[in-house]
Amino acid sequence: MRSRPSTQAAAPVRRRVATGTTAVLLGLTVALGSGLVSPAAAAEPTAITGVILGVGADETQRTVSWYSSADTAQQLQVAPTASLVNGQFPADAATFAATGSANIATSGGFNRHATITNLKEQTAYSYRVGSGDDWSAAYSFTTQDFEGNYDFLFFGDPQIGSSGDTAEDGAGWKDTLDVALAANPKAELLVSGGDQVESANNESQWNAFLGPDKLRQYPWAATIGNHDVGGKAYEQHFATPNTDKSGAYYSNGDPASGTSGGDYWYIYKDVLFIDLNSNSYATAQGGGGDAAHLAYVTDVINKHGSEAKWKVLTYHHSIYSPADHAKDSDNKLRRVDFPTTFSKLGVDLVLQGHDHSYSRSYEIKNGQKANPDEQPGDAQLYPGPGGVVYVTANSASGSKYYDITKPDSSGTSGAGNGADPLNPDSYWYNSVQNQEHVRTYVKVQVRNDQLVVQNVRSGTCAAPNSAVEKGNWCNNTTQAQPVGSIVDDFTVHNYHGDGQDIQVNVPNAAPGEFGWTIDGNNGLVDLGTAVEQGGDHFEASGKINPITVSDTRRSLAPWSISAGVSDFRDAGKTFSGSYLGWSPRVLQAGAGAAAGDTVASGYTDQGKGLSVSRGLGSADQGHTRGTAKLGADLSLEIPDSVEKGSYQATLTITALSS
After folding, report:
1. What pLDDT is recorded for position 6?
2. Helix (H, G, I), strand (E, B), or coil: what is residue 83?
3. Average pLDDT for residues 44-66, to the nearest whole number?
4. Residues in CB range of 75: below 8 A, 6 or more apart
5. How far apart, in whole angstroms, are the C-alpha atoms of residue 92 and residue 94?
């Protein structure tokens, strides 16, 4: 970057130089001939549909999935939004090759997926997918800080089409996303509880689910529900990170069949998320059943558990739910199979769907209530070793609600559905149960030493609320329970064993700055009156105003200061700047500064002197941070043919740094 302080300036001149480079791109359009193509000969454009942003392996990644009408090689293109000019992507936009295959016949077309890598924190990005002349619209998302606190949102069973009215279910789903993200615009993940649609391969329902633009702005962490598993559309629409699609994680044991499956995991900041296909629960079906999932969770936590502060599991079939599915035999089986291993592995929170109602369990350890003294609705939870809290999410779309059912005499541990002695209308395992027939979502605030979990109303009895519009009861009172009000609010505090853990947050060090300042008032550098020498030329000398260079950047990148002089002028009279030379000096050491080479007057060596830019001072990569002061002795030699006058020139100073 270049700055031009005049030697005649009357005040201090301050310049800051960015530690990067800026490229300016120019475009040309060249027309050759008429360029007209008849409609009959024009190729059909490739239609891009169903674009959705997905979660990546960590906070530096995102996946993008979409449908294409043609089987063509396609890409995902992404660039910082600030680099787009008039909506056009720059020539150096990052591109990622897409993979995919033909969709099943009922879906039609082809599916494509690509992963964005090497994202930077606190940056707005724009992206599009396609190729050639056939690109999707541009969509955008923003990354946040890659360390520290963040919020994510959990959504239960949109199950679009469940009410029989796909459009109204879609409207309720969109409204929940709009409400949730208007209230939490910096939420960083949208986590699924499963059952995106009612019918696994119904693309009309998928289109309604994918309709909200928020799904292209915030990453969706998909989960397979029982209504998603019976076809390939789920796998066609979602790419998930670190996914194991071995037969063990498919309900029928056959990944090549017309079903979806697989388990996956990812780490987002301080949370290790593990997502299971709970449709595969019994080996009699053909898959690995619950045992395979437990082996998977054990392996992932053993390998990656130390990389995160919190462990969160997600799967569809709620094992501690309060409504129609509470007594299902498959859920009772999972209720026996899962809890002991989850407790042993130190799982903190389990997020579930399936039962279209809200519940929050007590602290559960090894399949039993961990703390007999925990009261219904306690807001502050301090799980000891092995204590796990299970949450079931209500409907996020309003397409279907299940009513809370009554406990029985089957017991108050393990697979039992007996009553809570502290609250006989609830199951023994649940601290809170709720069903109002209004849409809700779950907000999870991830903090250094706690998880704050809230179930939040995203609607009321009013439309869009398909199930209620079709005759279901609703007991929500708008005045007392408005949109945004809290159904349940609790905090899970971390367990620190027998010691006292000490934590400190270390922020990013300031990147620092590189800059330079002309000392004093940048007064005129007066070389006085030239003195004739040798009967053939004049000589004059002086010193430039010192230049202070400051470099506090962590990068310790190289820098240089150079300068060149214009021709000397007095009205219409002139002589070349090549007659000016100098001897640079480091007047104050610091910032790795080294003086530039001496440059002789062009009168002496017939060279160009300072008429071309010459180095005043510089520092190499890895230099120390600090401040230096640079100066130079000036030497002017001019032929005696130069006419009498008072001449001035401008020394233009240039600072460069990577």
Report:
1. 35
2. helix
3. 96
4. 95, 96, 97, 98, 114, 129, 130, 131
5. 6
- Rounded to two decimals, the pTM is 0.78
If you average pLDDT over residues 153-164, what whole number do you get?
98
Note the pLDDT of residue 19. 34
Let me know if 282 is exposed, middle or buried by CB neighbors in 10 A (0-12, 13-18, 19+). middle
Structure tokens at 10: 């009357």
**E strands, 349-464, where?**
349-353, 358-361, 364-365, 368-369, 380-381, 389-392, 419-420, 423-427, 430-434, 440-446, 450-457
* Alpha carbons 115 and 129: distance in angstroms, whole number: 11
Q: Rounded to whole angstroms, how far apart are CA atoms 352 and 317?
A: 6
Helix/strand/coil percentages in the chain, nearest 5: 15, 35, 50
Q: Residue 443: what residue type?
A: K
State the Cα–Cα distance between residues 608 and 605, nearest whole angstrom. 9
Is the backbone peptide bond immediately before 241 cis, with ω within 30 degrees of 0?
A: no
Q: Please name the residues in contact with 141: beta carbons below 8 A apart, sequence gap of 6 or more.
A: 53, 62, 124, 125, 127, 216, 217, 218, 219
Residue 230, token pair as written in the block: 């019976």
* CA gap 528, 288 in Å, rounded: 93
**Residue 263 carries which DSSP code?**
B
| pLDDT at 520 (0 to 100) | 75
Q: Are 397 and 160 in contact, with CB atoms under 8 Å apart?
A: yes
Chain-centre distance for alpha carbon 580: 55
Between these two residues, 604 and 427, which has the higher pLDDT value? 427
Check if the beta carbon of residue 117 is closer than 8 Å to that of residue 63: no
Among all chains, which residue has been given the structure tokens 């990354």? 143
* pLDDT over 80 at 381, yes or no: yes
Neighbours of 295 (CB within 10 A): 13
Question: Coil, helix or strand for 280?
Answer: coil
For residues 81-97, one letter each, b for 16 or more C-beta atoms within 10 angstroms of the residue's C-beta and e for the rest, the string is: eebeeeeebeeebbebe
Tokens of 291: 């045992």
What distance in Å separates the CA atoms of residue 200 and residue 205, rounded to the nearest whole number? 9
In this predicted structure, the answer to whether residue 29 has a pLDDT above a threshold of 60 is: no
CA distance 241 to 59: 12
End-to-end CA distance of the chain: 10
Enumerate the β-bridge partners of residue 599.
582
Nearest to 216 by CA among 459, 440, 453, 48: 48
Return the closest-CA partner of residue 227 out of 360, 54, 400, 109. 400
Burial group, residue 559, by CB count within 10 angstroms (0-12, 13-18, 19+): buried
**Distance between CA atoms of 264 and 248, rounded to whole angstroms?**
13
Contact 310, 349 (CB under 8 A): yes
**pLDDT tens digits, one per residue of 96-144:** 999 999 999 999 999 999 999 999 999 999 999 999 989 999 999 999 9
The helix/strand/coil state of 249 is: helix
Asked if residue 566 lies in contact with residue 614, where contact means CB atoms within 8 angstroms, the answer is no
Amino acid identity of residue 350, one-letter, is V
What DSSP line would sit under 275-304, residue for residue? E--TT---GGGTS-HHHHHHHHHHHHHHHH
Element (H, E) at 215: none
Tell me how far the alpha carbon of residue 427 is from its chain's centroid: 39
Of residues 125, 152, 154, the one with CA closest to residue 141: 125
Mean pLDDT, the chain, as a whole number?
A: 91
